[in-house]
Amino acid sequence: MTENILTPLEQFQAFKDKFREIAEKTFDELTTSSGVNPEANRTLCKEIQDLKSDNKKTRTTLRWWTILCVFMWVVTAVSAITCIVKGFHNGWLVPTICIVLGVSMLVLLFWKIHPIIKKYKSIKNEQEILIKNKEQEAWDMMAPLNQLYDWDVFNRMMTQAVPRLEFDPYFTNQRLADLVNSYGWDENFSKERSVLYSHSGLINGNPFVIARTRKMEWGTKEYKGELIVEWETVEIDSEGKKHTKTHSETLRASVHKPIPEYYEKTRLIYGNDAAPDLNFTRDVNEEKLEVGSRAYKRKLKDIEKFSKDLKNDFAMATNEEFEVMFTTTDRNNNQQYFLLFTPLAQENMLKIIRDNEHGYGDDFQFMKHRKLNTLTAGHMQNLPLDMNPRMFWNSNYDEAKRVFLETTCENFRAIYFGFAPLLSIPLYQQIRPVSAIYGTDMPRQSSYWEHESLANFWGDNKFADPSCATKCILKTTENRKDDGTVEVSVRAYGYRAEHRIDYVSKYCRNGNYYDVPVHWDEYLPVVGNGCIELQEDTVDERPDLDPVARLQEINKKLDAFGENSVFRRHITSRIKQ
Known about the structure:
Elements: H1 8-34, H2 38-86, H3 93-146, H4 153-161, E1 165-167, H5 173-183, E2 193-203, E3 206-236, E4 242-271, E5 279-282, H6 294-308, H7 320-325, H8 334-340, H9 343-354, E6 364-369, E7 372-377, H10 397-423, H11 426-430, H12 434-438, H13 448-458, E8 473-480, E9 485-507, E10 513-536, H14 547-561, E11 566-568, E12 571-575
Antiparallel strand pairs: 1-2, 2-3, 3-4, 4-7, 5-6, 6-7, 8-9, 9-10, 10-12, 11-12
Helix pairs in contact: 1-4, 1-10, 2-3
């Protein structure tokens, strides 16, 4: 498994099976360490399920008895009203029937119906209290296991399945400096974005970052208003008489005003020294391109026409299907391009684009700017890649195991195929940077990317200005102290909404113009402030620690740092009041 991944699609099944095996083993180890008894939990959950089933039947029975009760009260009321309205002066039959019917209903209601309803309400309440107590018992039973999940459990499993893949405990200044200084990462990217989460590390010694960011862009919203206009006209009929007639018309108007809109995007950023002068952009194909189809032939014809234009320094690959499916007509260096995309790389890339069974097919954008590669895959946009351990918490053991295996395996698949276009290129796996061979002496300190991610984990509502009516872009600055703690100042950039009214002149059928009021909101910038205090782990996690010992170490850090603190990705933090 430590050999190069020369055919990522074909090798996926082996990696997938190994990861599944590791995930099952990890869950079993967590279960053993927690002391949770699966059989006892199954028995308890079965009892809860039976109680819920009985409670559902009770509620159904109670509902029907309640409907009958309401019906009988309606009959009683109708009988009483009929008796009063008819009276005995119109005959004695109808009133007598109404009295007998009403009295009978009242007797049944108070002697039978209400006691039965009271009985079933009591049974329902007792069942619901019992269910609540049993559910709490199940949560208490599973608590030792729920506490053992940690933020790094997925990363550890991923590293075991793919040994060439390494994850950092957190995104460090060292990793960020390497991307900037060695690979040309542009820091201006971060100025208008906030990092929601990030995972950094190495693949075969080359640095990568998987990051989800939030960005604000101005959009436009349509606001609508209306005004009802009434007027009178005098009309003369055929007999010469005057009549006043009232008319009305609803005048409608709209205005378009700017509104802040927030977009989130997940990217894979990867640095590699191969083809250091090459730039290109590859976008997702908008049409389904089957070989021989009209769309395929049309695109191939366009590429051939582009290649024949002497103004363009563009040489087509002999593999026409690769050029159509992985179109990069903006590439600036043909020699380095084909050094990167060998026949094997081209074939690998085509297989990934075509495959929708194991992978996600043609859903990725691939941009290369010199030594830096950026991939944006559709399948990674909504995946819970932060792997918050609370997503695994459950009171049902079997359900907890199912969620754990399905979530981690799906995330493995998503990340693997996020990397797959890079793994398709053999040259990328043959080059290791100097830093990966000799290492660096730079101390491990969390970067502002990690600080922004941490601030967003706590929630922008913790830092937003009280008048803020939108989401926030959180930015941070750090102040490192001599005792090893770090104070992170958080600035929350958002907008408050100020109510405004525009008046739009509209023509009415009565021949006049009227000002239609349109209410809208003007968004004005506001900045909130807050502070996070944090402390990083300065040593690598001990691999020899079992889950219980790891939890004990985490609890020690939390106790030492103070109440309301959280241990997340090797960083202990709390909001400083």
